[in-house]
């Protein structure tokens, strides 16, 4: 996997101040926290300086809380010890939500939609991909109207 970084697992911020940011999980342990010296520095005042840690093991990626004040949550369950991650898992730290994506085992895309044929360890029931094809309509050739202030112009 190290020869192909695109196959390394990925943590994507899906909620909170840094929504859209992604971080590759590396072979060495990575500390997640609000401290600028954290391996994965997250701008969230509700995180401890050294909040949690992810590490790649021979069996996969493991998440552990580092005795944070507000706790580390995995799929809406507060964790107390090291927990293995499964593709599609949701991690909540403070007001930040991350989604775990493992391209080597993926049954989800990086933002959490399921591909047909698996649940990827997810415990909710969102629509699965692929969506049925849609017949082109007369508005498909029209340009989108610009949006200003949240209202169509």
Q: Give the uncertain stretches in residue-range form.
A: 115-131, 139-145
Give the overall shape. Answer: globular
Strand order within the widest sheet? 2-1-11-10-7-8
Task: List how many beta strands DSSP finds.
Answer: 13
Count of individual helical segments:
0
Strand content: 25-35%
End-to-end span in angstroms?
A: 48 Å
**What is the alpha-carbon Rg in Å?**
18 Å
Return the structural class. Answer: mainly beta
Give the mean pLDDT: 77
Q: What's the helix-strand series?
A: EEEEEEEEEEEEE
- Percent helix, as a range, is under 10%
How many strands, what sense, and barrel or not for the largest sheet? 6 strands, antiparallel
């Amino acid at each position: 996997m190290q020869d192909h970084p695109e196959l390394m697992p990925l943590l994507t911020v899906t909620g909170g101040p840094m929504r859209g940011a992604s971080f590759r999980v590396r072979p060495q342990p990575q500390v997640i926290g609000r401290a600028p010296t954290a391996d994965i520095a997250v701008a969230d005042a509700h995180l401890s300086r050294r909040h949690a840690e992810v590490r790649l093991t021979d069996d996969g990626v493991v998440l552990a809380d580092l005795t944070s004040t507000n706790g580390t949550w995995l799929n809406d369950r507060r964790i107390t010890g090291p927990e293995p991650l499964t593709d599609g898992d949701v991690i909540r730290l403070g007001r930040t939500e991350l989604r775990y994506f493992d391209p080597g085992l993926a049954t989800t895309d990086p933002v959490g939609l399921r591909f047909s044929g698996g649940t990827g360890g997810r415990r909710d029931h969102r629509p699965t991909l692929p969506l049925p094809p849609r017949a082109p309509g007369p508005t498909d050739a029209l340009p989108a109207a610009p949006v200003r202030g949240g209202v169509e112009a």
